[in-house]
Amino acid sequence: MADHLEASVTLPSDPASVSTARRFAAGVLAEWGLPGEHDTADTVRLIVSELATNAVQHTFGLSPTYTVELRLDRDEELCVGVTDSHPRWPQRLPAAVRQDNGRGMTIIRWLAVENGGKLSVAPTPDGGKTVRVALPWTTVPVRR
Fold this sequence. Notes:
Blueprint: E1 4-12, H1 17-31, H2 39-57, E2 65-73, E3 77-84, H3 104-114, E4 118-123, E5 129-136
Antiparallel strand pairs: 1-2, 2-3, 3-5, 4-5
Helix pairs in contact: 1-2, 2-3
């Protein structure tokens, strides 16, 4: 098995691209041996959807594109990251705030923890950021 697999796609910061990001992630996972009906595949699609939506909605048009990256290391850890060029880091809303949106980071954090993973945010050299979720890869063997 490969020690390291990765795939990425750069998409326009447009709401229509979020479904493209989800399909990209699903296709890569299937190529790496994770069936689309597996719970982990559902989790990753939701994480990608939320991260891509955040990259589109919360960069206020200041990041013309965003990049979705999937990385599998030593068949042990799957990292899902979305990078944009906007400097503002994600904000978590207080639980008491009532509004129809703005819960993406709460959902992502919950999914990470629920699946034994972790959420991180790191700056990029160009002043943007990458929001990344690392999840254990213990579900299926990876095909070469």
